[in-house]
Amino acid sequence: MRPPRNRLAVAAALVAFLLALALPAFVSGYGIRILNLALISAIAVIGLNFAFGYAGLITLAQAGFVGCGAYLTAILSTTAGLPPLLSIPLAVVGTTAIGAAVGLPMLRLKGHYLALATLGFNVSFVIVATNWKSVMGGTDGISGIPSFAVPGFAFATDHRYYYVLWLALALATGIAWRIRYSHIGLAMIAVRDDEIATGAASVGVTRIKVQAFSLSAAYAGLAGALFAHMTNFVAPDDFALSHSIIYLAMLIIGGEGSILGAIAGAVIVTFMPELMRDLGQAYMIIFGSLMLLILIFLPKGLLSLAAMAARRIGISGR
Amino acid sequence: MSQQLIQLIVSGLAVGAVYALVGLAFIMVNEATGVVNFATGQMVAIGCFLSVTTGIQMGLPLAAAYPLALAGMALFGMVFYAVVFRPLQDRPVVTVIIGTVMIGIVIQNSALITWGSVPFRPRSPFGRQVVDVFGAAISAHALFVIAVSFLMIGLLYAFIYRTTIGARMRAVAQDRDAARLMGIGVDRMFVLTWVIAGLLTGTAGLLVGPMWFADVNMGDPIALKAFAAIIIGGFSSVPGAIVGGILVGLAEMLGAAYVSSAYKDGLVFLVMILFLLVRPQGIFGERIGQRA
Questions:
Q1: Which of A199, A215, A307, A317 is nearest to A254 (CA)?
Q2: CA–CA separation, A246 and A236 (whole Å)
Q3: What residue in A sits closest to B89 (Cα-Cα)?
Q4: For the residues A85-104, what does the mean pLDDT come to?
Q5: Contact B169, B160 (CB under 8 A)
Q6: Listed residue (A264, A186, A179) closest to A216, CA to CA
Q7: Which of B36, B109, B272 lies closest to A112 in CB terms?
Q8: Residue B197 burial (10 A CB sphere; 0-12, 13-18, 19+)
Q9: Dist CA B35 CA B92 (whole Å)
Q10: Low-confidence winner among A63-77, A86-100, A229-243, A268-282 (lowest mean pLDDT)
């Protein structure tokens, strides 16, 4: 049996996506860069939603996987000289493989043990990226990464690249939606809700967990690769543990276990520093406190507010 | 033994003793209250900066500055109990982890605003004094760190295993509801646990200040090593935290000198991940990798 889909949410998402096509016309140079970063983060957070939102795996490694994607495409497109059209998919495949290889042994751990192990992975990634100068460039990173281009057209400006990112996010969202309502998506949620019962129902719990983790890594790899071809430069700082925490914060703010929540959270948290710029140094204090308040009072995220409001005014989405 | 090796071992022991204190703070809180405190590192930083305030900014002699800073940390523990622990108590482990991470961000940035981004160099009670140990010149502060850490650990042991309040705390850690039925003030024990965590991390902060710098970002690297230490030692084991801390400290110092200074931290995390995968119960301790 298929669970009912929320038609209202689908309609709202479609409208939002179509409206977003017109956005670059109204946004200036710096704003479009932030917007692009929001779209990239959204892809990484949709990925995180598989591992954390659906399968319930607490992972603090998402920024590390974003870094894997970014560095893979950086190396492939500079040293190996591949065009981005080829290096991005290769980076995604590579990151997925790394995700599976890391996940296979680690996913036997639970709760905060898994959190600590994945944290160790993220910290180790930054250490390796900082010190493996010959391949990953050390603290200087890798520069001279070509902008995204298809034969005959280069997406060299942020305004042009926005449409590439828009398309990537639309595809990523569509695929995530399909997976969510497939038997794999349902199995992930079953594993989160009751691992023992799910195992007793002949579902391979470990296999589902590794699938969720690898999918999460694949999305992170895509986000990282797209990031590298926007900034034309990668350095270890962009993939530090603190970014993994931000990705998790995005998912929780938006609403864990929801694809639209993941996108909303990524956009809100990316723009938050811009909105609170006047606060200066106090910004992170406000940010941390806000997150804590949301955790305590709105454990289902901001999207649950929208759902509540919709119910209040009597729209039934089902 | 060469002079260098002795120096490395002593400084490894000193750093390891600090990791052991931080690891113990983490374990105490986790055992008694079930909270995985990802803000432990920031508590160390606050302890260090309180000693900066009392010892440098107020100019008190260290004999007054240290107790005052520790009193401040005990108070900090109580505030942490009221503001963070109470609302997060009995929430899913994910909520607690992310909640304490967020509190860590709040603490770290409050420290940044309070003390600024320029690091301080707290003085040691022994200044730059050097002691001769087996023909090697050893900083007196390193020996002081080792002595104070083990004194703290000894006091903690005596408190937990030799006093009635310690017995009550152990009862709460074993079975909260049964302890409550026996008439133990469970909430009071929780407050006490957070105060002890404040004192342990505060001591760690006082001790590391003169070894490194007092920097507002110092918390996370120390906490990460302490995590590694307790995983290597055994997550819920007190001797495990001590042995794990010292192993991590020694590995860090000896690894930096003889293997690779760039990858010394990577080495520690590699060992930690290997332990998680191969021997999740650590050197001591129960089999815990599966416990959520």
A1: A307
A2: 16
A3: A296
A4: 94
A5: yes
A6: A179
A7: B36
A8: buried
A9: 10
A10: A268-282
Cβ contact, residue pair B109, A288, below 8 Å:
yes
Please judge whether B266 and A58 are an interchain contact, meaning their C-beta atoms are less than 8 angstroms apart. no
A109 vs B289: CB contact, 8 Å cut-off?
yes
DSSP A234: E
pTM of the complete model: 0.85
Chain A residues with at least one Cβ partner in B under 8 Å: 52, 56, 58, 105-106, 108-113, 115-117, 119-121, 123-124, 127-128, 130-131, 241, 245, 248-249, 252, 281-285, 287-289, 291-292, 295-296, 299
- Residue A150: phi, psi to the nearest 5? -110, 160
Distances (CA, A) of A78 to A89, A136, A222, A235: 15, 11, 18, 14
Structure tokens at A108: 């036997």
Of chain B, the end-to-end C-alpha distance in Å amounts to 45
pLDDT in tens, A135-156: 888 888 898 888 888 887 888 8
Q: How do A233-234 and A142-143 pair as beta strands? A: antiparallel
Give the pLDDT band of residue A315 (cuts 50, 70, 90): low
A:B CB pairs within 8 Å: 122
CB B172 within 8 A of CB B186: yes
User: Is CATH 2.60.40 what the domain over B3-278 is classified as, yes or no?
Assistant: no
In chain B, domain spans = 3-278
Whether residue B32 is predicted with pLDDT greater than 60 in this model: the reply is: yes
Q: pLDDT at position B200, please?
A: 95
